Amino acid sequence: MAMVNEARRERRVRSREATRAAILDAARRVAARDGARHLSLRAAAAEAGFAPAALYSYFESKDALLLALAAEDLVAISRAMRSAAEMHNGATPLAAASAAALALLQNTESIAAASAALPNRPGSGESERQFNGRLIAALTALSQAAGRSTKNRSEQVDVLLLAATLTGLAVFVRSGRLAALGFSTDEIIARLDARYSYAL
Q1: Which helix (H) or strand (E) holds 105?
Q2: Domain locations along the chain
Q3: Kind and range of the H or E run holding 125
Q4: What pLDDT is attached to residue 200?
């Protein structure tokens, strides 16, 4: 009997995870089509083929849904930075990781939208905790690419500055402002690399 109950519980968990993934996929399609800032639980539910009320058992609010999308994007950015830093193909690990992060950041609005979804005072919501964990992993990947210690406060600040610069740079690139100002991403990344990279 215990094995039957355990098997049922595992099926329910897998079913719930599959439904949550389907909702996130639908939300990502809506965000790509309408913009992440215009994402709503109702639109995500319609795209996924669910009643809007059904989403509330997975995401308590639009903000929680946005944070979940951004957390997934942070995972992708962390992986891309680690892979690029390992391969680095003639560039420094930091330049390669920065270029990989920028390529993903400029093609998604979720992280910018998530900044508005985060509460003014840090809380303990599951979506916020998950986002924070993924953010720390991305900062760690960037720190490693730069050859910096995560234990030294001064170097942690440098990595935060670097991450903020890359995030802001993505906004400039996505809006066409960087080119309008006469700069290239390669030029900016080279400058960041010169300022922040330690020889590995």
Answers
A1: helix 93-105
A2: 1-59, 62-200
A3: none
A4: 44
List the one residue out of 138, 142, 150, 139 whose CA is nearest residue 196.
Answer: 142
* CATH, domain 1-59, list 1.10.8, 1.10.3860, 1.10.10, 1.10.3470: 1.10.10
- Residue 140 class from Cβ within 10 Å (0-12 exposed, 13-18 middle, 19+ buried)? middle
Chain-centroid distance, C-alpha 37? 15
Q: CA geometry: angle at 127 spanning 122 and 132, to 5°?
A: 55
What does the pLDDT read at residue 124?
63
Q: Which residue positions in the chain have pLDDT lower than 50?
A: 199-200
Note whether 113 and 105 are within 8 A (CB). Answer: no
Contacts of 8 (CB under 8 A, 6+ apart): none
Query: Which pLDDT does position 99 carry in this prediction?
Result: 95
| Reported pTM | 0.85
Percentage with pLDDT > 90 across the chain: 48
Distances (CA, A) of 48 to 20, 54, 60, 92, 104: 10, 11, 17, 42, 24
